[in-house]
Structure to design on (1237 residues):
């Protein structure tokens, strides 16, 4: 699910000091758990009546009857087991009157015909990928896109399958590392390839599909990927199935040139579409996980329709602003809230606009004190001073803030610093930032309402991550700087 | 004066008394043979413990060291002692409680019986409600007294053989005298029980700590302590005491007594209600006292006026004289001294050693018992309280607080001695002093962030256990209340709250250098990855309550999935030997099990007995396939249940290759699954239920659809069963078969 990683302790220390500030705006509260319930939360879904369904890795779905309860008395939350005996479900969605979850070898629709609160039908909603028995063959989802099509994503295997008595599929890895889609009433079809371990799978505000993946081979850092048919995302192992009859990527399985960067890969690797957003390694975490679009309409603060992304190893949540430039999604990521008790796997919004966070670090490691759990993140109503949007412009970037800026500091080019870099596109594990250069901030023009600043930059490079530090910008009427002054814009294309 | 023949004393209350005020720290560490500078330090202890400093103001820089001690709280004294005992205590404290540090104020030639009487009436007016205690069990009290640590300070019952003492082992005579407890005889049993529950309420000096007793335990202990012989009051004395048998409180006298209480400076040591804090008549300052001649309190005979008579021992007098002589030499208390002085005042040394000082005397060691016989193999580490060397860099602040005045800090369940409960106000300063005094000059560095990938908790688990990668920690250490495989040493469940990570590493890297004499072996000696491994252990212990026990402590059936008592079968999807990666196993309550393969869309194996061990499915990173746990595993014929009579499709094709499409399963009211699949436009419902005698299954297939005209056959599960034609009626066909093996 996650890749190897090394820690950057210095960075960590820096973040620890910021946590108190974050707490003022977003409060984090762990849920008390029933004794003996190993709540390795791997899927979250809110039911139409506001109850919360939680899939757990050992193979159960629990329904939390009162997810907005705040008491320390676990009984008041009323946990009830809805389904059991599932095989490591990693994802949970409410769709068309039932819960859907993805087990290792199928998508299952859970129905409760006698309405006693316990599932009595486990119906195969989609299947058709191989499970060789390798532990790393996780399957995620499902999510349903704007057209109601079901999507899943599949890990590549790490090594061979299991030799199990009576089983002949140990060498079958069909569609590992692919996304798959099933139209209503149809069959599951391979859509895109190139995943390594795509834990996060969700839709944005308009129903397009996005996934995250894990730094490792072919991934120098964690990506946010726009998933759709006929695209190759980057991990080469999955291309072994590119020429199968059902594949939409025929002819793509060609060895890539050696020693190229991801910026060069855009032009040199067939069907390759770079991530919409890179999460620079260590700076923005080690391991991107669950994605959730803020559809709370402002109940969760000023970031309506933006995406929130979980982080496994460093146990935090980041935020993503996306825009379309030349027909493709790209955008920036920002730190948002750290200090979760364990690895973040999934997030979901309750009807009151608070975010529930599902956690489990089994198999890997994470910051914090717990091995699994469930927490709730609530906006206190106080407005944090943040960069709400970072938009690419032909000459630079436009920053939009959550609060008016103090004009003098925001107009001073010395309040900003920017570098840009790319990554190696390579089989070796991970990869350092390459070709790093300073980007000169030529002017900074503050809008008349003080809510945005236009940065004119010299030396923008297409295909490069542009890392901004706006440390000097102050909020109007105070000396407070930005809660998170860093932003990382993946500039795949410069708008015209 | 005490009842019972001298020399055959049995009960602790009859222990051979000393004939001077017993200050236990002085008794433990000072004697007549000591050199003068050393003995002067003992004198300093006496100046404090005998409360000299409550009348004689010490120099400013010694004030923190010489605070004196608050004497017994006299609030409600008349509810604990009757008027006769009160008068006896006023007349001559040593009569009722030999060895007491309470001086007499009426020992001089100017003794005024009228004053004594007035004081008695005043104190006899101090009543409060004493809540009744449950009925105590004397024998249980006796066992308790001799095993929880009372004997660290008080005498055991003569000839009492503590539990677990090997036959033939001779008990040695105690070297140190008993801290006096003969007052137990005069207390009412309820008052005694209440006192034992919360000693510091009545004895605010805190010298007698709480022993974390339950109410019943306190009652048992009180019953035992009261069972000793009673103090006999000589008849002539009784006749001398006014109202010895028939006391009537006189309010006027009581009011007079209140004044005496102030005049005689009782209030310097005792708090009592109604005795407003009038400034005690100032006595000479400590620094101005005569120390060469024995005068005043140090005189050979009692003095007149408000001069207390302590009945001091000659060594004590010498020590006090030397202390007074050296007073001007005393500098600021160093950290080490501060710790040492506190440990002497509260007699921590009765149980603990630190810097080579203190610890129980050998003759008392048998009274530090073990609850677990296995601990006897640990020698002194199995029953004695631990040394306090480096405790300030060993335990976290939170844990030190738990140990000193909180609850639940015990991690040695095999030790029957209890860590007493002190008060924060008395010993709180020790924590900071320990921390500062025990700081390591070259700090140990350990990363406990959990961030580096090598810190994964399951690596730590591997190290703890008995397996190829393991160090076998669980041979000695238990976890989560599960006992270790061998000798019982500390349960490691609370390690992360309890130990500072730096000490954890220091100890593991060099057990003997860190904790001399420890039985902990140097497991990390010459291990190349010791640093990383120690951090792995830390991560595992940090998440221990959410993690699986290490190999060795994990019981074989911890992960065995068993059918519920409600009689519903278990349906469990897993990698399963004999089936594959898409097995749906069904375990029926009668010990008969079967598995459906969702990949090949058919029943594949059945077995009897135990169902499945879920460890590989639930908690193992590498997803080791489950194994049918029981016996008589029956593999069914590798063929699909339905086929076309006229079709040439090879029968060897299975699952989707044979045109079968898996659709899931329903559970009926009893939880029995019916598997659903499609083939040739026909919907099939396929279920198994155990036969009544559990000898096998009855299988029912319900087919909905129609024969397309090619002719459909059915083939049973057992190897070698013959095909049979399927006939549809009204778009439906029902097939049944029995499978036994």
């Amino acid at each position: 699910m996650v890749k190897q990683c090394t820690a950057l302790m210095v960075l960590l220390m820096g973040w620890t000091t910021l946590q108190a500030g974050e707490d003022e705006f977003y409060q984090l509260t762990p849920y008390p758990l029933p004794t003996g319930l190993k709540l390795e939360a791997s899927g979250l879904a809110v039911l139409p009546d506001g109850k919360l369904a939680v899939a757990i890795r050992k193979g159960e779905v629990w329904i939390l009857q009162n997810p907005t309860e705040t008491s320390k008395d676990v009984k008041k939350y009323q946990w009830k087991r809805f389904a059991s005996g599932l095989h490591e479900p990693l994802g949970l969605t409410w769709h068309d009157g039932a819960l859907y979850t993805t087990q290792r070898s199928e998508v299952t629709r859970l129905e409760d015909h006698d309405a006693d609160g316990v599932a009595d039908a486990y119906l195969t909603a989609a299947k058709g990928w191989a499970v060789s028995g390798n532990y790393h063959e996780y399957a995620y989802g499902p999510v349903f896109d704007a057209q109601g099509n079901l999507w899943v994503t599949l890990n590549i295997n790490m090594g061979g399958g299991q030799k199990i008595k009576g089983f002949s599929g140990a060498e079958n890895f069909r569609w590992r590392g692919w996304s798959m889609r099933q139209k209503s009433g149809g069959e599951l079809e391979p859509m895109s390839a190139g995943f390594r371990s795509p834990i996060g799978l969700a839709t944005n505000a308009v129903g397009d599909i996005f996934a995250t993946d894990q730094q490792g081979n072919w991934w120098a850092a964690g990506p946010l990927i726009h998933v759709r048919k006929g695209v190759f995302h980057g991990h080469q192992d999955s291309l072994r199935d590119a020429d199968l009859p059902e594949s939409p990527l025929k002819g793509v399985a060609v060895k890539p040139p050696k020693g190229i960067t991801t910026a060069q890969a855009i032009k040199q690797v067939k069907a390759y579409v770079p991530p919409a957003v890179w999460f620079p390694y260590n700076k923005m975490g080690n391991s991107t996980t669950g994605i959730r679009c803020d559809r709370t309409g402002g109940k969760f603060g000023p970031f309506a329709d933006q995406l929130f992304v979980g982080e496994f190893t460093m146990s935090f949540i980041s935020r993503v602003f996306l825009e379309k430039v030349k027909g493709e999604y790209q955008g920036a990521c920002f730190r948002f809230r750290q200090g979760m008790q364990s690895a973040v796997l999934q997030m979901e919004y309750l009807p009151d606009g608070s975010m529930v966070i599902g956690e489990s670090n089994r198999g890997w490691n994470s910051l914090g004190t717990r091995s699994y759990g469930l927490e709730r993140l609530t906006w206190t109503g106080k407005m944090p001073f943040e960069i709400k949007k970072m938009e690419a412009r032909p000459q630079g970037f436009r920053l939009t803030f959550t609060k008016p800026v103090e004009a003098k500091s925001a107009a001073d080019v010395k309040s900003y610093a920017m570098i840009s870099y790319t990554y190696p596109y390579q089989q070796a594990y991970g990869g350092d930032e390459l070709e790093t250069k300073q980007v000169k901030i030529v002017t900074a023009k503050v809008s008349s309402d003080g809510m945005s600043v236009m940065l004119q930059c010299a030396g923008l490079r297409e295909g490069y991550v542009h890392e901004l530090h706006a440390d000097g910008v102050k909020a109007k009427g105070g000396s407070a700087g930005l809660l998170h002054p860093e932003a990382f814009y993946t500039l795949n294309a410069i708008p015209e | 004066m005490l009842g019972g023949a001298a020399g055959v004393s049995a009960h602790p209350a009859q222990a051979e008394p000393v004939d001077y005020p017993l200050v236990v720290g002085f008794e433990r560490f000072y004697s007549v043979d000591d050199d003068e500078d050393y003995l002067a330090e003992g004198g300093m202890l006496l100046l404090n413990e005998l409360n000299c400093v409550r009348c004689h103001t010490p120099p400013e820089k010694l004030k923190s060291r010489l605070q004196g001690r608050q004497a017994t709280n006299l609030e409600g004294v008349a509810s604990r002692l009757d008027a006769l005992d009160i008068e006896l205590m006023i007349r001559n404290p040593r009569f009722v409680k030999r060895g007491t540090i309470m001086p007499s104020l009426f020992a001089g030639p100017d003794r005024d019986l009228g004053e004594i009487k007035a004081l008695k009436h005043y104190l006899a007016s101090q009543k409060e409600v004493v809540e009744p205690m449950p009925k105590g069990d004397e024998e249980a009290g006796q066992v308790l007294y001799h095993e929880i640590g009372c004997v660290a300070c008080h005498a055991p019952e003569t000839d009492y053989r503590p539990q677990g003492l090997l036959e033939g082992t001779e008990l040695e005579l105690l070297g140190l005298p008993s801290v006096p407890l003969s007052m137990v005889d005069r207390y009412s049993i309820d008052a005694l029980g209440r006192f034992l529950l919360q000693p510091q309420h009545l004895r605010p000096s805190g010298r007698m700590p709480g022993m974390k007793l339950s109410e019943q335990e306190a009652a048992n202990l009180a019953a035992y302590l009261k069972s000793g012989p009673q103090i006999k009051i000589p008849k002539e004395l009784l006749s001398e005491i006014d109202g010895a048998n028939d006391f009537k409180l006189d309010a006027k006298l009581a009011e007079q007594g209140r004044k005496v209480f102030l005049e005689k400076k009782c209030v310097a040591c005792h708090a009592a209600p109604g005795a407003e804090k009038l400034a005690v008549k100032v006595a000479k300052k400590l620094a101005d006292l005569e120390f060469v001649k024995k005068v005043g309190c140090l005189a050979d005979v009692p003095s007149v006026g408000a001069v207390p008579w302590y009945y001091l021992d000659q060594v004590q007098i010498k020590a006090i004289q030397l202390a007074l002589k050296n007073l001007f030499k005393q500098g600021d208390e160093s950290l080490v001294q501060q710790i040492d002085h506190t440990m002497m005042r509260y007699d921590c040394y009765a149980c603990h050693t630190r810097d080579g000082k203190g610890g129980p005397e050998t003759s008392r060691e048998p009274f530090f018992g073990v609850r677990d016989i296995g601990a006897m193999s640990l020698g002194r580490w199995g029953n004695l309280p631990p040394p306090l060397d480096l405790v300030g860099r060993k335990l976290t602040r939170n844990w030190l607080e738990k140990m000193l005045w909180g609850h639940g800090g015990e991690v040695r369940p095999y030790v029957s001695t209890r860590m007493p409960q002190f008060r924060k106000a008395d010993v709180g300063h020790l924590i900071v002093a320990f921390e500062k005094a025990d700081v390591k000059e070259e700090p140990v560095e350990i990363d406990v962030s959990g961030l580096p990938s090598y810190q994964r908790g399951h690596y730590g688990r591997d190290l703890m256990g008995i397996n190829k990668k393991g160090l076998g920690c669980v041979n000695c250490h238990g976890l989560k209340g599960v006992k270790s495989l061998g000798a019982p040493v500390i349960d490691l469940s609370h390690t992360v709250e309890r130990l500072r990570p730096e000490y954890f590493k220091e100890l593991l890297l060099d057990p003997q250098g860190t904790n001399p004499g420890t039985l902990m072996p140097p497991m990390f000696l010459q291990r190349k990855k010791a640093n990383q491994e120690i951090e792995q252990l830390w991560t595992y212990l940090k998440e221990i309550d959410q993690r699986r026990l290490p190999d060795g402590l994990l019981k074989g059936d911890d992960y065995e999935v068993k059918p519920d008592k409600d009689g519903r079968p278990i349906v469990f999807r897993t990698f399963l030997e004999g089936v594959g990666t898409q097995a749906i196993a069904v375990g029926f309550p009668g010990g008969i099990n079967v598995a459906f393969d969702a990949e090949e869309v058919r029943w594949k194996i059945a077995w009897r007995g135990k169902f499945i061990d879920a460890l590989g499915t639930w908690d193992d990173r590498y997803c080791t396939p489950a194994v049918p746990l029981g016996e008589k595993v029956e593999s069914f014929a590798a063929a699909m249940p339905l086929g076309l009579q006229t079709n040439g499709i090879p029968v060897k094709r299975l699952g989707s290759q044979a045109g079968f499409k898996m659709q899931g399963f329903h559970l009926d009211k009893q939880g029995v699954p019916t598997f659903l699949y499609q083939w040739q436009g026909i919907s099939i419902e396929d279920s198994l239920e155990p036969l009544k005698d559990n000898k096998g299954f009855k299988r029912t297939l319900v087919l909905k659809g129609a024969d397309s005209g090619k002719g459909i056959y059915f083939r049973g599960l057992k190897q070698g069963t013959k095909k049979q034609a399927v006939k549809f009626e009204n778009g439906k066909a029902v097939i049944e078969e029995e499978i036994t093996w």
